[in-house]
Design goal:
Layout: H1 11-15, H2 24-68, H3 77-108, H4 111-117, H5 122-135
Helix pairs in contact: 3-5
Amino acid sequence: MSETYNSTSCGDAMRNPTVRSPDPRDAELARLREQVRKLMEENNENEQLFNFQHTRTMEADKLWQKAHNKPLVLPDLGNLIGWLLERAEGSEREADAMAEALVHSLTRLNKPYAESVFAEHAEALRLAERRARRKK
C-alpha cells in the first residue's frame, strides 16, 4: 500500500518553509541563552574585580614586607588591613598637623599677600584652612 502525498495539506510549509507554529521550547531556549549571556557577563566582571583586588593585595603585601623587613613573609589579610588603616590614620594626622602649621604661618603673614604668592596653591590653602577649622 503506498501513501500518497497531499500537497494541499502542507501548502504553507511548502511555499514558505520558515512559517511554522510556535514551539514552546523556542521561548525557553531564548530565555536560557539570555541567562547564559548574563551569567557570562557577570563572570567576566567578577574576574576583573578579582584580578584588580589580587593586584592591589600583592602591592600592599610588598609594602608590608618592606616596612617590616620580612621579604619572604606574607601578612595575614586582617593584619595587613589593620596596618594599612594605621598608616592612613597616621597620614591624616600628619596632613592635619601640616595644615595647622600652614594656617598658623599664614595668619602671621598678610593673608592677601600670602594668597597672591601661593596663587597656584589657593585650593590647597582653602583646604588647609577648612581642616584646621574642623579640628578646633
